[in-house]
Amino acid sequence: MARASFIAGDWGTSHLRISLCDAAGAVLDGSTGPGAADSNGRFAELFDSLTARWQSPDAAAPLPAVLCGMVGSTIGWTEAPYVACPAMPAQIAAACIALRGGRIHIVPGLSCRNRYGAPDFMRGEETQILGALQLSESLRKGRCLLCLPGTHTKWVVLQDGSVREFFTAPTGELFALLREHSVLLRATSRDAAAVDSDAFSQALVRFNEFPQAQLLHRLFECRSRQLSGEFGAQEASAYLSGLLLASDVHGALAALADVGATRTVTLIGAAELTSRYTAALACHGYDARCIDGAAASVAGLVQVHRHLAHTVDAYAAR
């Protein structure tokens, strides 16, 4: 078995994924735990309990660890200030905040003033972007468009491997709120997963039939098509998902039309979400290149660990 080199952790709002990695970045073992919102300030205790079996009592020092996500937010273990865009990978790694005499490092988030003139922020996605740059060499050259779908979907512009700008669409959060707390869906449909592919695809087509229409003018269809008998619970939920994704993609592509001549978007995330965004992008004639979000996160943490290891003094004393 390969020798353990460091611990990588993606500590988000609702989940913690932590991995034991070797020097090459291969995952040797893993564990999960509560997210930052449910950690109740017990970050040190939780980290120690989840990693205890990986720490050798005979070792001269504990294994180093690199953590990203909400663990570095105001509700996290310690706050890691945002790095302003444009930001190169080395700048992000160099801005890590150290704990326990430099044995634990927390990756900072990114900030920018987006093209709508508003402040924007990300925390956790920057590490996935770092990983994607390692997993796909083509992203390191020229202008590239990324999309990281999720609760708060990020649309990101890269220039020669530098994060130039981004903006956020709370697509997933809006879906959850409308599904669970609005009358657009019947009570019986609020617990139904949006898995009906036909209704989802129908929403993409219908949205693009009237691209000039505001999303607000389409959302009531989720209720009216149930009242008319066209949809049942699952269909209505999937239709809502399709309308929201179609609006997200349509708006982002229009706003970012100046990003290079290539009609390819790199999607970073879970397979279920990236497949839906792939379908939405195809309606506009765009290709999608998908990178698994968990793999990208680990690859990004590996890259940060290597950067810090090459600056030994900083790794030991920041």
How many DSSP H or I helices?
10
List the secondary-structure elements in sequence, H or E. Answer: EEEHEEHEEEEHEEEHHHHEHEHH
Named CATH topology of the largest domain:
Nucleotidyltransferase, domain 5
| CATH hierarchy: architecture of the largest domain | 2-Layer Sandwich
Question: Which percent range fits the helix content?
Answer: 25-40%
Strand line-up of the largest beta sheet? 3-2-1-4-7-6
Low-confidence stretches: 314-318
Mean pLDDT score, rounded?
A: 92
Number of strands: 14
What is the CATH class designation of the largest domain?
A: Alpha Beta
Number of domains: 2
> Any idea what the shape is?
globular
Head-to-tail CA distance between termini? 32 Å
Structural class: alpha/beta
Largest β-sheet summary:
6 strands, mixed
Percentage of residues in DSSP E strands: 15-25%
Describe this entry's structure for a reader.
This protein has 318 residues and is α/β, with parallel strands linked by helices. It folds into two domains: 4-139 and 294-317, 2-keto-3-deoxy-galactonokinase, substrate binding domain (Nucleotidyltransferase, domain 5), CATH 3.30.420; 169-292, 2-Layer Sandwich (Nucleotidyltransferase, domain 5). 36% of the residues lie in helices and 25% in strands. It contains ten helices and 14 strands. The strands form three sheets. It has a six-stranded mixed beta sheet, sandwiched between helices. It has a five-stranded mixed beta sheet with strand order 12-11-10-13-14, with helices on both faces. Helix 3 crosses helix 9 and helix 6 packs antiparallel against helix 7 (233-255). It is globular. The two termini are 32 Å apart. 42% of the residues are buried. The model is unreliable at 314-318 (pLDDT under 50).
